[in-house]
Amino acid sequence: MEIQVTGIVVHSNDSDSGHSHQLFLTSWDGRPVNVHVHPFEGDTSFDVGHFHHYVGVTEPAPSGVPHVHKYHAQTSFNDQHKHMIRGTTGPAIPLAGGGHYHYFEGYTTIDGRIPHNHRYGGNTGNERAKQ
């Protein structure tokens, strides 16, 4: 089975050591593809006497096809430091009233007077069309 896919390849200037590009789909099987994002927020686990809050928006992904989203955010500044969260969501989970959300989880980067990380996780909000 062949599915015709078109898109735009974008070079990533990410600080990661690996060279990478991102593909944003513009059509899937001959149909135009719209993209969308999801809001997300939450609190990290309570470790070394504190927690951190985080809030962000996922990177865009195509609507109407199986997909996941990359995400990243900086935590709040607590106990004289902050952490970064970064990862890829799980697959789309349909909502009864339409739309979908994604589950995400992971560990923050290590930081602090006493070096440590925090666990985080939750569900994104419903999809929002990306203009």
Descriptive notes:
This protein has 131 residues and is mainly β. The protein has 2 domains: 1-33, no CATH class; 34-129, no CATH class. 0% of the residues lie in helices and 44% in strands. The protein is built from no helices and 14 strands. The strands form 6 sheets. It has a 3-stranded antiparallel beta sheet, with no helix packed on it. Strands 7-4-14 form a 3-stranded antiparallel beta sheet, with no helix packed on it. The chain has a two-stranded antiparallel ribbon with strand order 5-6. A hairpin with a 5-residue loop joins strand 10 (93-94) and strand 11. It is elongated. The model has no long low-confidence stretch (mean pLDDT 88).
Task: Please sum up the structure shown.
The protein has 131 residues and is an all-beta fold.
Write the layout of secondary structure elements.
Elements: E1 5-11, E2 21-28, E3 31-32, E4 35-37, E5 39-43, E6 53-57, E7 61-62, E8 70-74, E9 84-88, E10 93-94, E11 100-101, E12 103-107, E13 119-123, E14 128-129
Number of helices: 0
Spatially, the strands of the biggest sheet line up as 1-2-3
What is the radius of gyration computed over CA atoms, rounded to a whole number of angstroms? 17 Å
Number of domains: 2
Pairing-aware structural class of the strands and helices?
A: mainly beta
